[in-house]
Amino acid sequence: MLQLSYVREHKNEIIDRLKIRNFDGEKVINEIVERDEVRRQSQTEADAQQAELNKMSKEIGAAFKSGDRQKAEKLKAKTGELKTSTKELFERVSKAERQINNLLLSIPNVPNAQVPAGKSDEDNEVIEEFGQKPELTTDAKPHWDLAKEYDIIDFERGVKVTGAGFPIYTGKGARLQRALISFFLDEAERAGYKEIVPPLLVNESTGIATGQLPDKEGQMYHVQEEDLYLIPTAEVPITNIYRDELLKKEDLPVKMCGYTPCFRREAGSYGKDVRGLNRLHQFDKVEIVQITRPEDSNTTLNNMVEYVKSLLAKLELNYRTLRLCGGDLGFTAALTFDLEVYSAAQKRWLEVSSISNFETYQANRLKCRFKDENNKTRLVHTLNGSALAFPRILAALIENNQTEKGIKIPAALVPYTGFEYITK
RNA sequence: GGAGAGGUGGCAGAGUGGUAAUGCAGCGGAUUGCUAAUCCGUAGUCGCCUAAAAGCGGCUCCCGAGUUCGAGUCUCGGUCUCUCCGCCA
């Protein structure tokens, strides 16, 4: 969430910039500033009274020690009234703090200056297109047909075992998943990311810190009995590794990666977009996460985008890079680039990676800070990106590489799959 | 699941009702003729005052209530960790 001092000092600028993401923050922010004034005034009074009480306590202690019992009793009698009014003042402070906190939680991140205005995904800015769209014969099939034909994904039995959106990968399909895990993790390790195997269930504090809670409960599966949530992405547990920690400046940047399944309820998603592998309740993903100094995060974001692009190039997939407009930006993100791969059989672009800079928004909730060379404690910046999400990569791979001989595996993956073609 | 012990600053670690020891690390400074030693200072956070610092004050010993003029210390509730037992891949 936004820092209170930042809201106080840049009120109008924040209101203006939030408009880029079509968020009208005027009322909430004015209320925060007003509550903050109450808070500070009450605290100044309360502190002064508390100081007086502390002084009296010491005098009483001294009087007892010197054996002056009468003086002590006299002083004790005087504390009562002051105690009551001090307590009331502190209650006003904490009430204001709670109100401010709730209001702050409801405000999304302030978009970075690079973010273009726009209402929806249609207004995202295409900044680059790489490679040729593959040309397929007219009888080319979408992946859900190919999956059945080549016996690599069993959607129907997935429905039986669990429900829609939980596919079962079989045989070479399963092997291909395993190949992707190893390929992406090996690449990430080469790029300097430390591999993490995080928990797949997280507690409430963790969900709040990265911004999934409150409000977005609908996205996560909740385990009632233990009050835990299944992770919607590895971002959540991996970023939270450094929650409530004070890092040394030489620890930065922290570069981590991890493979995990991701679980999403996707409440309210219907229609043709959900066909096949396009939108699932459980899917696999390798995530990269970085924690950086504030002044480095812009460069880092670009490096992360370049890194993910290099993966797509190695998989011989054509892609385009989008800069998300304000209307499509996630709640916690300041700036996001999406990478989309073209599916020739479905004749549409598929989002395979989303790479974001959260600046201090998550860091403030995480209370993740570092000491700089002036010994100042400052919030870090957090970033993450998919590198990559499997289902749509798989969809594009099998659709775009369908040949008469079978489905051709890109050369970079062959050492991992152990086969060059998936055949019937 | 049962029993017991514990949670103190970036880290380690004392502290049985009256201003939170000490060591290490980091940072700043002093001194010395050599990859070093020694000495001094230095926790976080909120508020007041500042142009900024300095300064002053509050809070913080896992969290929340309570007792008390005064709580790291006593009481109650919660939470997490460790040890032993039970169960178990």
Offer a few descriptive terms.
alpha+beta; 424 residues; Helix Hairpins; three-stranded antiparallel β-sheet; RNA-binding; single chain; eight-stranded mixed β-sheet; BirA Bifunctional Protein, domain 2; 13 helices
Description:
The protein folds into two domains: 4-105, Orthogonal Bundle (Helix Hairpins), CATH 1.10.287.40; 121-422, Bira Bifunctional Protein, Domain 2 (BirA Bifunctional Protein, domain 2). 42% of the residues lie in helices and 22% in strands. The protein has helices at 4-9, 11-18, 26-65, 69-105, 143-149, 155-161, 172-190, 204-210, 235-239, 297-314, 360-366, 390-400, 414-417; strands spanning 125-130, 153-154, 168-169, 194-196, 201-202, 222-223, 228-230, 246-248, 254-263, 282-292, 319-323, 335-343, 348-359, 369-371, 377-379, 381-389, 402-403, 406-408, 421-422. The two termini are 52 Å apart. The chain binds one RNA strand of 89 nucleotides through helix 3, helix 4 and strand 8.
The CATH architecture designation of the largest domain is 2-Layer Sandwich
Number of H/I helices: 13
Intertermini distance:
52 Å
Class from helix and strand fractions: alpha+beta
Strand content: 15-25%
- Overall tally of domains: 2
* Percent of residues in helices: 40-55%
- Average pLDDT level: 90
Number of strands: 19
Task: Please name the CATH topology of the largest domain.
Answer: BirA Bifunctional Protein, domain 2
How do the strands line up in the largest sheet?
A: 1-11-12-13-16-10-9-4
User: What is the CATH class of the largest domain?
Assistant: Alpha Beta
User: What's the shape?
Assistant: elongated
User: Radius of gyration, rounded?
Assistant: 27 Å
Instruction: Provide the CATH superfamily of the largest domain.
Output: Bira Bifunctional Protein, Domain 2
Low-confidence blocks of residues: none
Describe the main β-sheet briefly: 8 strands, mixed
